[in-house]
Write a structure and sequence with these properties.
Blueprint (H helix, E strand, L loop, with lengths): L43 E6 L5 H16 L3 E7 L9 H10 L2 E7 L2 H16 L4 E6 L3 H10 L8 E3 L8 H19 L4 H4 L1
Parallel strand pairs: 1-2, 1-3, 3-4, 4-5
Helix pairs in contact: 1-5, 3-4
């Protein structure tokens, strides 16, 4: 009896006639970061919840703070992934591209969800959407491996102390407040107006 072993990095050999993309990350184009707005004033923020415990609360608070304190026009789309361990597909990316100017996603606090969150961020960037990805610090190696597989070994995300899932509601709100400056700086380029 033959057993198939799945390669979670997506680098395994493809069956003959497969339509899958290149297995070698060096064959993939290196994604450039999407252009950042100078600020979030008037921006439509998209939130992508990966279903992990406390992720939606964290993202919701971040969205509220970006609207209330940084002039974002709205939280234009909030979606929950069907499977936290699988990167978003082109259909979902297209919906965000039509409805949002920037995206915040996470919270990666396990191996597979962290890898998928990094892939999500890179997919949004390739589509022209600035993305802030939040992972807990226990999964840096997982995130870095996926970034390499995606052809973006230097891709950066926002790190927060592990774990997030066990925090109380008040602690999640505090964590959102603590990470807000880094999320803001990831999504914007305040020098853009000066250089323009």
């Amino acid at each position: 009896m033959t057993h198939t072993i799945l390669d979670p990095t997506g680098r395994g050999a493809q069956p003959a006639g497969s339509a899958a993309g290149p297995a070698d990350p060096q064959d993939r184009p290196t994604p450039e970061l999407a252009p950042r707005p100078a600020s979030l004033a008037g921006a439509r923020v998209g939130l992508l919840d990966n279903t992990k415990h406390n992720a939606l609360l964290f993202l919701t608070v971040v969205g509220e703070l970006l609207v209330e304190e940084h002039g974002a026009a709205s939280v234009g789309i909030v979606e929950t992934k069907k499977n936290f361990s699988i990167p978003v597909d082109e259909e979902i990316v297209s919906r965000y591209r039509e409805s949002c100017d920037v995206v915040v996603t996470g919270v990666g606090d396990c191996g597979s969800c962290s890898a998928a969150a990094v892939a999500d961020g890179i997919n949004f960037e390739r589509a022209g959407l600035p993305a802030a990805v939040v992972l807990t610090d226990a999964f840096d190696i997982t995130g870095r491996t996926m970034a390499g597989v995606q052809g973006a070994p230097d891709y950066e995300w926002i790190r927060t102390e592990h774990p997030m899932a066990v925090l109380t509601e008040e602690q999640v709100r505090e964590r959102a407040r603590l990470l807000l400056p880094e999320i803001l700086s990831t999504l914007t380029d305040p020098d853009r107006e000066v250089r323009a």
